[in-house]
């Protein structure tokens, strides 16, 4: 059963990238790099191995577009499973060998690792070897092993999201279509979310991710769109409260306050416009 690993690149740390590729080549049949208009990347920087494939994009069209390019390449080259990784994530050396056991044992759509948050030192796992995931927000793209056939059937990734909630939306559609998501707790992926800082306010511990103002826009816009799309008005009101609290955190503790507040307002205004846009995935029927 052929497995390909895919990494989306945007101005990567070349040394870490080569380390990731070397680890992956010991485990999968090929590694596909999708370069989203990086200014510091060229093929000359890479390890020499004909199992490394490259797609060069002249502009950055977002995470979802690049993930769909991976699916398309994998489908056209007779791969059955796609392992997706962030450029900064170091894959465990046992990742694919453990995944293969569950590919053979279960009819699953996605197999994912346990996540260790290196900033907060939080292990998002459990005591058992694995668990079936019901909440799509419990899974991230990095480290996930995706059944290509099932991914195509649900329409691939929603390109209008660009970044943020691309993975959550995909996993929600996978679950709704009857696909199963299995987390291997004995495969641990070190992951870093933003630049975490902790603060105290009125005796409460406050955690800030310190994402930049551009990411703030997509986080607000896409979260509101996602919640309204799948859960309706009540969930949307809960998100409005979360949005207000998040904005208070920015005002109190984060830098670039004005830019982030303006991005928050723009994200709130723009989220409804996503409903009017058609999904550009070639496999979507919507």
UniProtKB/TrEMBL annotation:
Pfam families: Glycos_transf_2. One of its GO terms (molecular function) is glycosyltransferase activity. Residues 10-124 form the Glycosyltransferase 2-like domain. The keyword Glycosyltransferase applies. It comes from the Bacteria. Pathway: Cell wall biogenesis; cell wall polysaccharide biosynthesis. Keywords: Glycosyltransferase, Transferase. The keyword Glycoprotein does not apply. Belongs to the glycosyltransferase 2 family. PANTHER family: GALACTOFURANOSYLTRANSFERASE GLFT2 (PTHR43179:SF12), RHAMNOSYLTRANSFERASE WBBL (PTHR43179). This is Rhamnosyltransferase. It comes from Selenomonas ruminantium.
